[in-house]
Design the sequence.
């Protein structure tokens, strides 16, 4: 593996590991791992704490993916190193993969984390914005029809590689989109079981009172 690709993956993992959902909730006196679905992702933060904190976490988690993906491309463009310039796309892909792994298995929270949807959005906003737009439309249609965030996220993830192929993205990115779609579904496996059993909760805000101290 080329040094630039490996370094991009490591930097991406560190960025992805930043547990913004956990930190934002702690600022409100909440340990997010003890409330709602016990997931530090934006959906659970929004469900527990409300729209403002949830949207903030989504934006920050998306930013992780965008920076991890875009930084190698930016450094390659400014001529940071010949190795990076020669492997810019592979480094960007490695950065996003690292960010997803960091987000879902954060070294700052004992390798617990979110499901990677917002981080994926940030990365593909850099790599494949047109395909991401199609995926976003799928998410919105499914969510506002069913109110299931998990179902909307999985179907949007599945739409991503198909949209990438339609827009004639490089095979590397199509393959990556397919791999990430599988990753997102695996991370939602418990939700999938509940959907099949008819026990999955539809999205609704659940406000809890912060604990004293």
Sequence:
């Amino acid at each position: 593996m080329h040094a630039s690709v490996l370094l991009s993956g490591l930097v991406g993992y560190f960025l992805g590991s930043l547990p913004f959902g956990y930190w934002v909730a702690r600022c409100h006196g909440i340990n997010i791992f003890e409330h709602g679905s016990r997931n530090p992702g934006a959906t659970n933060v929004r469900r527990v704490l409300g729209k403002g904190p949830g949207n903030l976490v989504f934006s920050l988690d998306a930013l992780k993916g965008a920076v991890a993906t875009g930084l190698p491309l930016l450094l390659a463009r400014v001529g940071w190193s010949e190795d990076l310039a020669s492997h810019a796309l592979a480094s960007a892909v490695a950065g996003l993969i690292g960010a997803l792994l960091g987000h879902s298995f954060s070294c700052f929270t004992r390798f617990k984390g979110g499901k990677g949807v917002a981080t994926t959005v940030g990365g593909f906003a850099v790599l494949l914005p047109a395909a991401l737009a199609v995926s976003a439309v799928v998410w919105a249609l499914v969510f506002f029809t069913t109110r299931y965030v998990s179902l909307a996220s999985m179907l949007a993830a599945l739409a991503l590689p198909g949209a990438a192929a339609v827009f004639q993205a490089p095979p590397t990115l199509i393959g990556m989109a397919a791999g990430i779609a599988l990753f997102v579904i695996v991370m939602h496996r418990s939700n999938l079981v509940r959907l099949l059993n008819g026990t999955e909760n539809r999205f609704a805000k659940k406000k809890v009172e912060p604990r004293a101290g």
Q: What stands out?
A: DSSP finds eleven helices and no strands in the chain.
